Structure formats: C-alpha cells, structure tokens
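Dear Dr. H.,

I hope your travels went smoothly. While you were away I took the liberty of generating a structure for the chain from your last submission, since the lab meeting agenda had it listed for discussion. I wanted you to have the full record in hand beforehand rather than looking at slides cold. The sequence, exactly as received, is reproduced here:
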Amino acid sequence: MKASVGFVSSRAGFHSDGIWSEAGVVRPLQALAERYGRLTVALSSSPERSPLLCEHLAGDEADAVELPWMPSVRVGLRRWRGARRAIREVERRCDVLVVQIPFDSPLALLGARRPRVYHICADAREWILSSTRYRGLLGLPARVVA
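The corresponding predicted structure, in token form, is as follows:
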C-alpha cells in the first residue's frame, strides 16, 4: 500500500481546472504523483493566473486545498490562521507532508500532526536580506522570522 502524500508551499498557485503554478513547483509534484498516486496539494491561492504560472497539474493528478493568498511574509504572518486550517486539512487527508521552505506563514507550520519532510529551496534569511521589499523597520521582524 502506497502512502498518501501532501505538499504544502506558499508559492503561488492558480486553481482552475487543476492547479497552475511555476515549473519548479509543478514538476516535482508530477513526479510525486507518478510515484505515490494521489497527492494533496496546498499552494498560496493566487487571485489571477499570471504568466509565471505556466505549468499545469491536472485535477486527476492531485487534490487541491487552497491556502490563503500570501504574496509576502508580512501578509503571511497576518493570514496564519487560514494557512493553518488548510495545512490541517492536508494533514487529515495524508500520511506524510512535504513542506517547501521558506514558507510565508511560519506560525501556521507549528504543531505538526503528521510526519513532515522539509524541502528547502531557498535560504530565507539571505532572500530577506537581499530583498528591497524588507528594508528599514519591516526588515527586522522578517529577519527574526527567517
């Protein structure tokens, strides 16, 4: 019997006739779906399909759970309760979770109920230090979270 796998990321996903996201998100998901069968995916729910969201994960490959839209850590920190509810739903459906780090709502990740594998795809501290979005006073809490 194969384990059911969940995937959680604050990277953008557009939910329409399956999931649309970046190649760096969809291609690993397709590989997981091929290996484990059904997959439950939670991505930050983009309000529109931007040109960057060009790869498609069909609805028959994965169940979708929508995370709140989190375009930044600042917004993610405010939306942690909604993100936590979505993560709990993925945990309810799956045996193990793959969580992509950095995650824009780190408080939502506390209190794991299923085994987790953390896929580190960027150095969050370095990303925040080099970002123009986190200059001045806004940078301090962002660096603490990182």
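Two observations you may find useful: The two ends are 38 Å apart (CA to CA). The first helix runs from residue 23 to 36.

With kind regards,
E. W.
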